[in-house]
Design a protein that fits this description.
Number of strands: 14
Shape: globular
Number of domains: 3
Distance between the termini: 61 Å
Strand content: 25-35%
Order of helices and strands: EHHEEEEHEHEEEEEEHEEH
Helix content: 10-25%
CATH superfamily of the largest domain: Pseudouridine synthase
Radius of gyration: 21 Å
């Protein structure tokens, strides 16, 4: 545990910029993550990254355990969609964790990317998240960008923050949705009943999900959806669709365990990304092909019972 006391000449600075300056090993992104998980407290209270520090504020920092994990490159086959000197875009397979953690020390996307990029990865994500600009859940397949340098990382992070990156997903859900298109605008926070889950909560963070029905399968009580998100909350699509009564097939966490097709993990795929290249400014549109299990399930659903 580390403790810092704010001097008068430094008051009114944002806490994330203050700590990023005083704690050399902590990036601003890492500080924001620690604030969110309450591993950084001000006067024993949780604060937002936008909090303006005051003279004599007592800031406590809890050490992060994941630093004990040895990060190593691993030759893991992964589909590369696009690569240049600034970014690498890949199609993450279902079942792969994005970055190491205590429960998943290796075999992650980061381990695979390190073998491909060697030392060319942005350090902004921290020791165990080099180059990681955004994430996908373990059992969500699809397209993801990794930054090869800090300049690219900062630019892409700003695009995401300003809602300039268009993320398109596809999913197969249980139930027949009447509307052809709709928007779900419900705040999300950590569940008070189960800390491993997220939930709709009036006091949570703003979360907006747009979806449209691509195809209905009334004979199987399912719908095939295209989804765009304005915000990137943890489990956002899964929570939102479950909340309105259309859980994603295979989602063992948010679908009450119902899974008639034996799908392991949610039937959710990050199909495409539209963004501006962090160096050239050129508009990029990249797609990740559907995984085999997803294609097979669609074929089954199109058959008459």
């Amino acid at each position: 545990m580390k403790t810092l006391v704010v001097e008068k000449e430094e008051e009114n600075n944002r806490i994330d910029s203050y700590l990023a300056k005083h704690e050399i090993e902590l990036s601003r992104v890492a500080v924001q993550r620690l604030l969110e998980t309450e591993k950084i407290l001000v006067n024993n209270k949780k604060v937002k990254s936008s909090y303006r520090i005051q003279e004599n504020d007592r800031i406590t920092i809890e050490e992060e355990l994941p630093k004990e994990i040895e990060l190593k490159a691993q030759e893991i086959p992964i589909e590369i969609i696009y690569e240049d000197k600034d970014i690498i875009v890949v199609n993450k397979p279902k079942g792969m964790v994005v970055h190491p953690a205590n429960g998943n020390p290796d075999g992650t996307l980061v381990n695979a990317i390190m073998a491909i990029c060697k030392d060319s990865l942005s350090g902004i994500g921290g020791e165990i998240r080099p180059g990681i600009v955004h994430r996908l859940d373990k059992d969500t397949s699809g397209i993801i960008i990794i930054a090869k340098n800090d300049k690219a990382h900062i630019n892409l992070s700003e695009q995401i923050k300003n809602h300039e990156v268009k993320k398109t997903y596809i999913a197969i859900v249980r139930g027949i949705i009447r509307e052809n298109e709709a928007t779900i605008n419900m705040p999300i926070s950590r569940s008070t009943k189960d800390r491993k889950k997220m939930a709709v909560n009036s006091k949570g963070k703003n979360a907006i999900t747009h979806f449209k029905v691509i195809e209905r399968f009334p004979q199987h009580n399912c719908c095939f959806l295209e989804i765009n998100i304005e915000t990137g909350r943890t489990h956002q699509i899964r929570v939102h669709l479950s909340e309105i009564g259309y859980p994603i097939i295979g989602d063992s966490v948010y679908s009450n365990g119902k899974n008639e097709w034996g799908i392991q993990g949610q039937c959710l795929h990050a199909k495409s990304l539209k963004f501006k290249h962090p160096t050239t400014g050129k508009e990029m549109f990249l797609e990740a092909k559907l995984p085999e299990y997803f294609e097979k399930l669609l074929e089954e659903l199109k058959k008459q019972p």
